[in-house]
Every structure is written in structure tokens, then in C-alpha cells.
Amino acid sequence: MVLWFKKRENTVEKFYSIIKNGDYVIEIGGHIGYFSTLFSSIIGPNGKLDVFEPSAENLKYLRENISLLPSELSKMVSIIEKGVGLRACTPIIPLLVTCLNFKST
Fold it and tell me: Is residue 34 domain-resident?
């Protein structure tokens, strides 16, 4: 369990070292908004955050978590209800949005 927390701590530190106030961030796979809320706090009200999330179940929580942000941060977040990939695909089950047998051309 300690290793998992250390890994998350290192990830958050890396984001703080790369992303700056006023930046434009594109998040692919917003899930429930953990990193979306972190990114919005780093980039501040002068930044822009576009979050892609295809799962209807995740979108409920993502929207809720974004709505809990101060209004100056939540207004600069755009949620795009789509998945992102190199080619179009049809999910096999609703929560599985990656294409199986993917081969780059």
C-alpha cells in the first residue's frame, strides 16, 4: 500500500513540475475527475482544461467533482463526452472503450 501512495505522490509532483498557471491541458480519460480537479487548481482561472471521458457512469462523478470547484476554476473546464484514439471502434462492453487487437499503421 505504501508503494501505491508513493507512486501517486510522484505523479502529482511531476504534474506540478510540468504544468504551470495559465497553461492549456487536454486530459484524455477524465475518469471521475481526480486529476481534472488537480489540473484545474494548477492552471488556475487563466488556464484551460479540456477533459475527454466516454463513460456515462464516470461522467456523473466527473461532473459532480468539477461542480465542487470554485466557480473561477470550474468555468474553464470543458467536459467532452467522447473517447480518444487513433481510430474509431465500438466498445465490446460499455466500460471497455479501448479497441482490442489494436495495431498501429
Answer: yes
Cβ distance 32 to 68 under 8 Å?
no
Contacts of 78 (CB under 8 A, 6+ apart): 48, 49, 50, 51
Helices (H), 19-96: 34-43, 56-67, 71-74
Q: What is the pLDDT of residues 14-35, one digit of tens each?
A: 999 999 999 999 999 999 999 9
| 60 inside domain | yes
pTM metric for this prediction: 0.75
Q: Which domain holds residue 27?
A: 20-105
Residue 78 lies in a domain: yes
